[in-house]
Structures are given as structure tokens and as C-alpha cells.
Amino acid sequence: MRLKRKDLLGLADLTPEEITLILDTAASLKEISTRPIKKVPTLRGKTVVTLFYEPSTRTRMSFEIATKRLSADTVNLTVAASSAVKGETLADTAANLEAMNPDLLVIRHQASGAPHFLARRLACGVINAGDGTHEHPTQALLDLLTVREAKGTLSGLKVAIVGDILHSRVARSNVHGFLKMGSEVWLAGPATMLPPGLAALGARLTTSLREALTGADVVMMLRLQLERMGQHFFSTLREYSRTYGLNPDTLAWAKEDAIVMHPGPLNRGVEIDPAVADGPRSVILEQVANGVAVRMAVLLLLSGGE
Ligand code: NCD
């Protein structure tokens, strides 16, 4: 099967069938990363440009590793070292990159909608690697793959997402993803960080960590996005951690076989206790490994592959 679209901008636009196609493709590509020679010639001759306007560790490295494992050529523009610091607009930067005729452009940008703006202007495919507080589709896809592997299904689960929901593109993409695949999504955090718009999509909002975690199959913890907070959203880090932190005692409210997830970067001791982050129910490093497979799948499918 093929994915009939030019760009991957968000999970809001994907159908459950498209999500399943991407996850199945990723699952079948995982094996390549375990070979002694971790490379297939599938995307030989294709050029992938990555453009990161915000810091990134996992997303950027895994896109780069994914392109290399598929034999595409990859060029990475570090924006701090580019003409953006000399005042060049995003549209001009993109038009200049397009003149070099890449096949795919991967972009992370602080402005929500930046990838959509480029997707309308450029002939090449555009992949959203995180836009402001809007969406982070490849993160949600790798989260879905990790849950599907751990639970054997994506339907009928109780998924609790906890923390700074308001500023989290990871939460927004996951709300779309888990609801589309037939699971229940609970969002927990301080009232200042619970956007009511997500309730309209079908997610349940609560300020009670206990209510969200009770009977949960999946617990996803989020970092406080302090860099996106212009005002006070909580009193002190200590109080936040005491009310919303995941530790062995609060995790006990979830199902006995609940898995613990985090997109990274972790703020240990704030939203998550090291005993839980490094404990037997944590799948945080599986998420990272699945990130490579999911990005390989997306690069392959958007290049017209099957
Ligand atoms: C997240 C992001 O950048 O949106 N990280 C990631 O891509 N794994 C979450 C975060 O920064 O807290």
C-alpha cells in the first residue's frame, strides 16, 4: 500500500488506515537497524534536507539516522549558523533550499503552522518535526508503535497524559492519534495548563492526577515547557512535582501492567522520579528506538515507496 499525500503535517489530518500503514511499515523496517550492516538502498539518489529552528536531540538524530539507513543523502541546516540570524525570512530560506531540488524537507520551528506554510509553497514533501505548541506527528506515531508493541492493540486502552498539556505538541498529536485508534485519553495537569479545546476532540480533562492514573494502561509524562511560558502557570517546581509527579506511589494508581512513557528530554525529579524513569515499566528507550523506524517509514512512504 502507498500513502497518497505529499506532506506529513499532523495527526489531525491522518485517517486510522494511514496511521496503521505507517506503523506496519515501521514495524517491518525495524529489523534493518539490528543488522550488522544497517543500510538498504531504497532511497538511493533522494535528498532529504533537515531544518531545525529549535533545539533537538532525539528527533534530529533519528531523522538523520533514518535517512542514512535508507541510503538517501541528507543535508542538515543548523539555523544558528545560517542566514536566518542575518534576517532572512522562512519563505526565502525555503525558496533557496527548494532551488537545490531536495525531495523531502524536515522542519522544526517555534511557530505553529510553519511547516504548513512551507508545504503550500514548495513542491517537495514537507515533514513536521514539531511546530510550536501545535503538532509533532512523528513523535505521536512512534508513541503509538511503542504502545501497540507493549499492549498488542491500540483500542480500548486508557491513556493518561500528564503535565504541561497546553504547550505540548506531543500531547496534541497523541490526543488525535489515540482517539482515532479507539482509545480513551485523559489529560491531567494544573488548570492553567489544560486547554479546553482538547475536550471538544473527545479527551477527558482533569486536575486530579489520581483520577487520570486510576486504571490507566499507559502513563505518558511531559516536561514543563518553561521556554514557552511567558507568565506563571504554577507556583513552585516543588509543589508541581508533589502534585503531578510520577513516582512509585502515584504509579501504583495505574494498572499493574501499565507502561510509563516520556518523549524526552526528562527533567528528573520534576515530572518523573528516576526510580520510575529507569524502572521495569518504563518504555522510554523503546520509544527512542521506535523513533528511527517510524521516521524511516515516513521517509519511505512520502517518497512514494510501499
Ligand atoms: C519534545 C518536543 O520537542 O516537542 N521532544 C521531542 O521531540 N522528543 C518534547 C519536549 O521538548 O519536551
Low-confidence stretches: none
- Largest beta-sheet characterization: 5 strands, parallel
The count of strands amounts to 9
- As a percent range, the share of helical residues equals 25-40%
- Number of DSSP helices? 12
Cα Rg:
19 Å
Order of helices and strands: HEHEHEHEHEHEHEHEHHEHH
**Bound ions, cofactors and other small molecules, one mention each:** N-carbamoyl-L-aspartate
Structural class: alpha/beta
Multimeric organization: single chain
- How are the strands ordered across the major sheet? 7-6-5-8-9
Report how far the terminal alpha carbons are from each other. Answer: 5 Å
Describe this entry's structure for a reader:
The longest helix has 19 residues. The protein contains 12 helices and 9 strands. Helix content is 38%, strand content 15%. Helix 7 links the parallel strand 6 and strand 7. The protein has a 5-stranded parallel sheet. It has a 4-stranded parallel sheet with strand order 2-1-3-4, sandwiched between helices. By secondary structure, the chain is of the alpha/beta class. N-carbamoyl-L-aspartate binds next to helix 2 and helix 6.
